[in-house]
Amino acid sequence: MIKEISLTITEPAILMPFLLSSLTNKSRDNVKSLLRNRQVMVNGEPVTQFNHELQPGDTIVISPVRHTGGLMARNMRLVYEDEHLIVIDKNAGLLSMASDNEKYLTAYNILSTYVKSQKPSNKIFIVHRLDRDTSGLMVFARSEKVQSLLQRDWKRNVTARTYVALVEGEVTEPEGVIKSYVYESKALVMHSTRDPKRGDLAVTRFSLIKSGKEYSLLEITLDTGKKNQIRLHMQEMGHSIAGDKKYGATSSPIGRLGLHASLLAFIHPVTGREMRFESGVPAKFRRMV
Known about the structure:
Elements (H helix, E strand, L loop, with lengths): L4 E4 L4 E2 H8 L5 H9 L3 E3 L2 E2 L6 E2 L4 E4 L6 H7 E6 L3 E6 L16 H12 L6 E2 L8 E7 L2 H9 L1 H4 E11 L6 E10 L5 E4 L6 E12 L3 E8 L6 H8 L22 E9 L6 E5 L4 H5 L2
Parallel strand pairs: 10-16
Antiparallel strand pairs: 1-6, 2-5, 3-4, 3-6, 7-8, 8-10, 9-10, 11-15, 11-16, 12-13, 12-14, 14-15, 16-17
C-alpha cells in the first residue's frame, strides 16, 4: 500500500528545491507532477507553486493519490454514494472511461482517485456509459460483484431511464416511436436500415416537452440501448440533436451536444430497494425554446 509522506520544515526553504532534496527517489518531473496534481499539502492546503516559501514549523504532507476536489467540481456532481455504488451527474465533454486519446480526464479516473483518497485499496467499476458530449446521470459500482449484479440483467434492473434532447426544427407530433435496425460502419458511424438482416433492432420513444420554430425540446426513452441510438434516430426523423454535426446537425447554438440523461431509476443490487435520481433540464436547453 502506498502511504502518504509527512515532512516538517526546520529552516526557511523554497518548496521545489526542498522536495527534490527530500524525495531522493523521485525525479524533477515526478515532483512537478505531484505539485501540478495538488498532491503536496502545506499546513493542510494544496500548493502548486514551485517557489512557495517554507518557514520553520511548516508541515508538508504528500498524498499518494491525486487531489480530485477541483477536478470533480469542474466535471461532475456527486449525487449519491453508499458502500456499494456511486451515482454522478456528468458534465458534457467528459469521457465515461479512457480512450486512445484521453487516459486521465475521465469520469472513471476522477472517481477512482476519489474512492482511493478514502482508502487506497478502494476501486470503482464501470456499469454503463454516456457519450462524451452527453451530460447527465451515471451509476458506478464499487465492487466487481455489484458491477456484475447490475450488468447481468441491466434492462430488468433499470426501471426508468429518460433523456432530454434539444433538437433542430419544430417538432409537431406530441409523441412517437422510431424503430429501425442499426449497424456501425468502418468509419465508426452508426447507420439505420429497415433490413433486419443488416443490423440490430433499436427502438426509441419520444414525447414533446416544448416546440419552437427553430428548436424543440423532447423527452426520450429507450426500449433498447444501442450505440448513438438517440442521435441516429433523431437524425432519421429529420430533427438532429443540436450541435450533433456527426448525425446531421447544421447548428450548435449552445456550444455542446443537446442531449442530457435526466432520469435514472434502478433496483439496488444489494438492498433490493428502488433508487430514483433526477437531474433537471439544463438551462441552456430551455433558453432555446
